[in-house]
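[09:14] KT: can someone run the structure on this one? pasting the chain below
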Amino acid sequence: MERPALKRLMADVQAGRIDVVVVYKVDRLTRALTDFSRIVDVLDKAGSSFVSVTQAFNTTTSMGRLTLNVLLSFAQFEREVTGERIRDKIAASKKLGMWMGGGVPLGYDASGRTLTINEKEARTVRWVFERYLELGSTHKVVDELAKAGVVTKRTVSKSGTVRGGIPIRRGPLFHMLKNRTYVGEIPHKDTSYPGQHPAIIDRPLFDAVQALLSENDRKVRKPGETRKAHKGAPLTGLIYDTAGNRMSPTTARQKNKPAYRYYASTAVQLGDPSKAGAVPRVSAPLLEDLIAVRLKELKIPAASGPAADWNGIRDLIHRIEVLADGIRVELDRPALQRAMRDMPAASRVNLERVGATDEHPTINIKARMVMRGGSRIAIGPDGQPALKRSMIDPALSSALIRAEAWKRKILVGEVETLTVIAREEGVTAEYARRMIRPAYLAPDLKASILDGRQSMGLTLEAITKTEMPLDWNDQRRLYAGR
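[09:31] RB: done, structure tokens below
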């Protein structure tokens, strides 16, 4: 019914200006039973009639109305089947990465069933993505686009109609930043497929922009309302390096291994690491653990449960800066004051000292993040672990437990020699001799391994690849420096 010519026809019928409506076939008027019923009601009320030139039926009889309804039912069925076939064809073509028409994104030109890069426009698109990642605000990007005179893509239809060529506002900007076409994909409903066209935006840059959009895509908070934590990266939008670059979530993947999360400087993600700060990339789990543990030590309610409440923690934090020798956490004063109201007086002492001065009370966490035996750990100024629970070495602790089991078998007479154990385990005798060494460590060194308090020098490699002294004091000097 939403057809301009049909609406004018019905208006003329209601005005009494038409006596008979003549059509070539009934399906030229409509292919929907519901719409035809409304048309017939209008004709009946106006005293007008309906005639099909090529189809003979009498709508004044029940048989004629039945015939008409059957004809319209088939017409409606044909319309719906045709629509399904077209939609299925479009979906299948998009799965193959073909461009199926519509508004051509800025930066591309349509070329048959694919897109080609318009290099002049593509430079603008790359600049928009990079500026948004740097500024973190669509309002600021829109202002810069307006000053630069950048407009939407201008197209001219076959009929001569001009579309586009207008200033880019926030709506079109959001659409551009979220458009997966720019990474070489063809979007279709809630998914996307690898396209046959080249990408304009690199995947790391696009992913960083999506993470920032997700962080900023929230309503204005009321007093006391918490920020929503970004799924999988709870500190998104809060972390900066020492050069002032925002640090966005990213992942590193190795074959047959799970993805590992990082927060990386936008300078690195934009391909210019020289502009990054002192620490261009930091382990996300380790950084999150360090902050959560420090807030727990300060008795912050959001960090004091069995698991950290990242919504509450995010509400408390104003900004995080990753330094060469630690982390500076600036707190939001109103949120800190609200948190303190919910705490017992005895627990507020340290927080009152933290929040005594400055617009944004600051917590300094002294820790360097280093690799040790393939694991990422945090080391404090004294050279000891800054996060003790992150120091448990699964390989070393497992080796110690197995070595103790082998040693016990020999002591109780279950087996005669270590060679028998090697045969049972399917390993060489030399390997068994090296791997039983942890069982002969000093008791305090064993306890430190199981608790995750071992020193930097006490590693599985140090124990098994070099000669281990049997004297406990020598072991302490060698592995623990004491």
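[09:33] KT: thanks! Residues 218-224 have pLDDT under 50 and may be disordered.
[09:34] RB: yep, looked fine to me
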